[in-house]
Specification:
103 residues; mainly alpha; 5 helices; elongated
C-alpha cells in the first residue's frame, strides 16, 4: 500500500495541486450594493436607492435584465434596443471600423 506524505495530501485538499488553482468566488458590485442596502430580491423593484445606483452603473456593472426592463434603463451594450441609447445624444456619429483602421 502506497502512502502519500502530508504535504501532498494538504495540497490536494486546499486545491493547490496541478497547474491551475481555483480563484475565490466574489460578489458582483450589484450584489454588494444590494447587501449594503439590506435588500431582499422582493425589495429590488421598489427601492429608489437601488434604482438610482443602477441608473448610474447600468453600462459598467452587471444588473439583472428584468430590473433594466422594469425601470426602462438602457445600456451602451444593448444591441436589441431600437431607440438610441440614453448615454449618447441622438445626433452623435460613430466611426466605422474602416474609418478607425484608416486613421
Amino acid at each position: 500500500m502506497k502512502h502519500h506524505n502530508n504535504a501532498q495530501k494538504n495540497a490536494w485538499v486546499s486545491g493547490t495541486t496541478g497547474l491551475m488553482t481555483m480563484a475565490p468566488a466574489t460578489f458582483t458590485k450589484f450584489e454588494q450594493e444590494v447587501a449594503r442596502l439590506g435588500l431582499l430580491p422582493a425589495d429590488y423593484v421598489g427601492s429608489a436607492e437601488l434604482k438610482a445606483w443602477c441608473s448610474r452603473n447600468a453600462s459598467i456593472r452587471w444588473i439583472p435584465e428584468y430590473l433594466l426592463k422594469t425601470w426602462g434603463l438602457t445600456t451602451c451594450w444593448d444591441i436589441t434596443e431600437t431607440k438610441p441609447s440614453k448615454l449618447a445624444p441622438a445626433d452623435t456619429e460613430f466611426a466605422t471600423m474602416q474609418e478607425i483602421e484608416i486613421a
